[in-house]
Design brief:
- By secondary structure, this protein is of the alpha+beta class.
- It has twelve helices and 20 strands.
- It has helices at residues 21-32, 56-64, 68-72, 114-127, 172-176, 234-241, 245-255, 304-320, 329-358, 362-377, 379-390, 394-408; strands at 14-17, 37-40, 51-55, 76-78, 80-85, 96-99, 109-113, 131-134, 138-143, 148-152, 157-160, 162-165, 181-197, 204-210, 213-219, 225-232, 263-265, 270-279, 283-284, 287-289.
Length: 409
């Protein structure tokens, strides 16, 4: 559907910078909350061969903005998630398996091909009359006390009360706001590809923990296709990508212990260097950070865009409660305080687990192995982590209810 033009005299209250999934979801979410939105960024890349595993709370957001129905038939449900210790070290744990049914869920979420996700979101944005999509880049920012002004590459200007910085890990909007970042590269790279296999995946995702990082298989639609994120040293990633498809297929099959039968890799392998990045603040000078502008960490436990969508949900809520000026100092402080515990906790947990895989120190290996062993053997603890992984805080609520029931008995 074509975009309906917004009258020129209408001042955009919200500026969204970035047209990746986070930016598109932010634009649709703010429009759904009754704001007039200007989205700035080029047509998104719809040829990305990667996939994104979105958990149920993130899917609820996609349902609210009206895109979930179009995505469901082209995605694979995640019903079982498994962690396998494949480090080959002296101290290893038994596998831990998580079933969505154990916490009364039909599924943990959906694994969605990125090209399907982005194309569907872009189509929804184009059809939304509350979103004015400027398909260009921001050349410079002027962040004033009353409004933010973006000068665009085509020479025009747009203004608003709040800038939603969904412009990626290098975020020019974040830099313009004067927000510093703590970053650290890892000696790792992720080789990403899709592959076919002769045995059905049964909607199960398996994350092998190896000495170079996670080796994660996630189901794709159709039963006998999966996506893979293989984290290794950068030089190894290049070597693997250079292999003939038959040799790479055999390598992956062996790494997976042939659990899905014979493997056949598909074309278009991608390599991404890994790093971690955390801003000192999550909002300042009318700029609020979401997605990779707010947090970058290794691909462990399907946290990335799920955390970004929680950023957006919280920012829309804070903005709705400060509707006259959603970019005010009060609103920015409130957003920063609300997001800080979730972002810091998730980033720290993922980075700690990743470092424990790389570490040769025995205490780190013991701690990681003991945690996985407890998860594998103690059902109440598994349930706690499953609930907490889906809805932060719900694991503690369920644990508290269980303790109260025990006391009452």
């Amino acid at each position: 559907m074509p975009t309906t033009a917004i009258p020129a005299e209408t001042e955009a209250k919200i500026l969204v910078a970035g047209t990746g999934p986070a930016g598109l979801i932010a634009a649709l979410s703010f429009a759904g909350a009754g704001f007039v939105v200007t989205l700035v960024g080029p047509e998104p890349n719809i040829e990305d061969g990667r996939t994104t595993a979105l958990m149920n709370p993130a899917l609820e957001t996609l349902e609210r903005i009206g895109v979930l129905a179009a995505l469901s038939d082209q995605s694979a449900p995640l019903k079982i998630m498994r962690i396998v210790d494949a480090t080959e070290r002296l101290i290893r744990s038994t596998p831990a398996t998580f079933h969505a049914g154990d916490i009364a869920e039909e599924r943990f979420g959906l694994n969605i091909p990125n090209k399907v996700l982005v194309a569907t979101l872009a189509q929804a944005v184009a059809a939304n009359t509350s979103i004015d999509w400027k398909k260009t880049m921001v050349e410079s920012w002027n962040l004033g006390s009353d409004e933010a002004v973006a000068r665009l590459a085509d020479g025009s200007e747009v203004s608003g009360k709040l800038v939603v910085a969904a412009d990626g890990r290098m975020s020019p909007a974040r830099q313009a706001a004067g927000i510093s970042v703590s970053s650290h590269p890892f000696p790792q790279a992720a080789l990403v590809l899709n592959f076919g296999h002769t045995l059905d995946h049964n909607f199960t995702s398996t994350e092998f923990h190896t000495q170079t990082g996670p080796f994660t298989q996630v189901p794709l639609p159709g039963g006998r296709r999966s996506s893979l994120v293989c984290v290794v040293r950068p030089e190894t990633a290049s070597e693997l990508a250079a292999l003939h498809d038959d040799a790479l297929s055999l390598h992956i099959e062996r790494r997976m212990q042939s659990m899905l039968g014979r493997v056949t890799v598909e074309p278009k392998h991608q390599i991404y260097p890994l790093s971690t990045s955390t801003p000192k603040r999550f909002a300042r000078n009318r700029v609020a950070l979401v997605g990779e502008a707010a947090h970058v960490f290794p691909p462990i436990g399907a946290q990335g865009l799920n955390l970004g969508i929680r950023d957006i949900v919280d920012l829309v809520d804070v903005s709705s409660k400060n509707r006259s000026d959603p970019g005010s100092d009060k609103a920015m402080i409130t957003y920063d305080l609300r997001r800080r515990p979730d972002i810091v906790a998730r980033t720290s947990a993922v980075n700690l687990l990743n470092r424990s895989l790389l570490s040769n120190m025995l205490p780190a290996q013991i701690a990681r192995s003991a945690t996985l062993e407890l998860l594998g053997r103690f059902a109440p603890l598994r349930a706690f982590f499953m609930r907490e992984g889906l809805h932060p805080g719900s694991g503690f609520s369920a644990l508290g209810s269980a303790l109260r029931e025990q006391i009452q008995r």
